Amino acid sequence: MRKIPVSLLRPGMVLYRPVFGPDGQLWLNAGVELKSNYINSLWRAGISFVFISDPLLSDVLVTEVVSEETRRQAVKAVKETLQTAKLTKQNSLLIDKRFSSIVEKLVREVLASKDVLINLADIRDVDDYTFLHSVNVCVLSLLNAADSDLSQARLEELGGGALLHDLGKIWISEFTLKKKGSLTPEEYHEIKKHPTFGFEILTSQANYSPNSAKVVAQHHERCDGSGYPHNLEKDDIHFYSRLVMIADVYDALTADRPYRLGMKPHKAIEIINDCAESYDRSLVGSFLKHIAPYPVGTALRLSNGYLGIVIRNRKEMPLQPVVRIFKNGDGFLYREPFDLDLLDKPNLLINDVLSDAESELELPVITKHRKDVIKWQPK
Q1: 379 lies in a domain?
Q2: Does residue 7 contact residue 50 with C-beta atoms inside 8 Å?
Q3: Whether 110 and 232 share a structural domain
Q4: Are both 21 and 91 inside the same structural domain?
């Protein structure tokens, strides 16, 4: 399995994971061999990257925290809820049985997978960023909360608030939300209103949870008082909100946006660690236990010059993954790649994380119909 940007796809590559459209319809199934017209369609749809099969990584398996089906159902539920709210303002029931059942399902699956590290980023459609981001923030928040003693009912309150944390953005102009350049002071002031807007929408609902509504109102507050809209400090910020603010920042940092590419997980982790005083430090610590700094499929350059791809992570030792080595320090690819457990090599360090483009160039994929020109390591 390899993550490849759509801009670098070539005919003959084979999909490892299916690709779905914005309404959950299956576009391309796993196992489909990519053709030029498929690649062009993915590009036009705004898909950033896909996961393709690699014969040299065929034994590498990744366990998902929530199933692809549940993720798609959740994205659809968020999308429909926000669209209904936008059309009817406060005059329609938003938290219905279908929405609640999706929250329940997310909680059940996260609790069943709470020892699984977050390894794979999802396939993001640029236009559906808000919906995908909302689901990711919900899953990340629930995963962090799974370490606490919250009851099922309280986890569902948290999940419901996390799924709708950006509800108020329906009242923010599309131009401001998707602007590629820097925001003007006026535009930033507009953005800062969305927690209050969302809170107003939720509190107009007869069946809303006050604790869920606090997540919507407070997810941009910070424990040191530097957040918005009310500059609250830690003791005045609800526990759910303190969970969601960390997940919100992490997912935002790692997502591709119109104005910048997403950061690699290890860089986002560094930033969150550096700013830990802004958050609940204990919750930052528990959150990072669930995140793989070097997800499965990440291409690395080691301190001895070796190039390889992460094939396995451990929750207890996330900075020392198992790496499949493809290339030596002299630039030759090994005829038979081998696995190196960094836990067994304490003096061997990770020097660099390759970009997706560098990975595709340095460690070329063998497709169905051709072999890349390879300088093999002599025996």
Answers
A1: no
A2: no
A3: yes
A4: no
Domain membership of residue 30 as a residue range:
2-53
107 and 239 share a domain? yes
pLDDT at residue 206 in the model: 73
> What pairing do the DSSP bridges indicate for beta strands 350-353 and 307-312?
unpaired
Cα 313 from chain centroid? 17
310 and 279, same structural domain? Answer: no
Structure tokens at 196: 């209050």
Tens-place pLDDT, residues 235-260: 999 999 999 999 999 999 998 776 67
List the beta bridge partners of residue 68.
none
Neighbouring residues of 24: CB distance < 8 A, sequence distance ≥ 6: 72, 73, 75, 76
**Both 222 and 103 in a single domain?**
yes
- Do 147 and 105 fall into the same domain? yes
Lowest mean pLDDT among 12-26, 190-204, 269-283: 12-26
Distance in angstroms (rounded) separating the CA atoms of residues 174 and 194: 13
